[in-house]
Description:
By secondary structure, this protein is α/β, with parallel strands linked by helices. Helices cover 31% and strands 27% of the residues.
Amino acid sequence: MILLAIDTSGSGCNAAIYDSDADKTLGAAGEDIGRGHAERLMEFIDLALGNAGVDLPQIERVAVTIGPGSFTGIRVGVAAARGLSLALGIPSVGVTTLACLAAQHLRDRPGMPVFVAIDAKRGEAYCQPFSADGQPGGQAAVLSLDEARIAAAKAGGAVIGSAAPLLGDGATVGSADILSIDMVARLGALADPAADRPKPLYLRGPDAKPQAGFAIARA
């Protein structure tokens, strides 16, 4: 299966073409752009296709990161994946950033459970436990640092992600929340199109709030 993987969940904007039968990334493109994912994503998809020597009609599945992460970036990626899925008549699937970070860690350090903790600021963390074989051990949630510390201790194993150093004791491996587009592709190839349709995973509401008190009354 030839798969297009998309990640716009953070400051990076990345795309890759992956051959699941050969377990090989055929081509990739992207940059750490900070903002402007909507303006650059299709450019990177075109570059990835060119680097892979693959035409868009050859794509058989689209995988996209669904969060938690950048509110706007996630919306851009999911919308693009859904649009390409509809236009090409192929399935699209969502991959969480938490699952991707867990899989990256387990690829390099197999054999023990993983508790992923991404710094959500405001004294909170996006968290989820995973077993040693990469299966979720519970639902993703946004927790206070105290709650996350207790949950990590209960889960056991390694604590990874940008919030890991904030949780203190334990088998902690602090790291930036940098996703491998190759891993997004691999997890996307394993996902179930019927159960894992791309839908933004928002564990907390957007920072921007409507200023109802300042609304102009309609005539």
